[in-house]
Amino acid sequence: MFCEGARVIATDLPNLLGNLQYNVSRNTKMKCKHQPEVKELSWGIDLEKNFPRSSNHFDYILATDVVYSHPFLDELLTTFDHLCKDTTIILWVMKFRLDKENKFVDRFQELFEMEEISNFPSLNIKLYKAMKKKR
Ligand SMILES: C[S@@+](CC[C@H](N)C(=O)[O-])C[C@H]1O[C@@H](n2cnc3c(N)ncnc32)[C@H](O)[C@@H]1O
């Protein structure tokens, strides 16, 4: 985790925050200017309450392997949309598994301009850079 001088928030579901806090502490101890904040985020839920648009201006959103066989893809898309300003850059690592989940890329592209930055064909993994489309 690179957090020298940056304010970083690591998120996960409420029941996983203990594990996340442990991992963040282990990986950042003595390596960070500012200790990353660990915070609850359930995709699509209480977004404005927990991450008000007026006070959150993220430069980057890092998302790795968040698209797989789970029933919250709509909520995930809503969350990306909520957290992004016009200038926010999303760096998103996608592992391609099943057709149904892979279609998320098309839906994502309706809201975001995206560019492929890296491709690891033997692993079915791509890294994308994305920004909100001008609406
Ligand atoms: C496959 S893991 C990837 C974890 C990590 N980003 C990585 O690449 O190692 C998917 C992550 O998404 C989280 N997740 C799944 N459903 C979620 C939801 N509805 N809201 C928030 N986080 C969720 C899981 O708890 C888990 O941490």
Automatic annotation (TrEMBL):
Stored Pfam families: Methyltransf_16
Source species, domain of life: Eukaryota
GO molecular function, a single term: methyltransferase activity
GO terms under biological process: methylation
This protein's UniProt keywords: Methyltransferase, S-adenosyl-L-methionine, Transferase
InterPro entries per the UniProt record, alphabetical: Methyltransf_16, SAM-dependent_MTases_sf
SUPFAM superfamilies linked: S-adenosyl-L-methionine-dependent methyltransferases
Protein name, UniProt field: Methyltransferase like 21E, pseudo
Lineage of the species this protein comes from: Eukaryota, Metazoa, Chordata, Craniata, Vertebrata
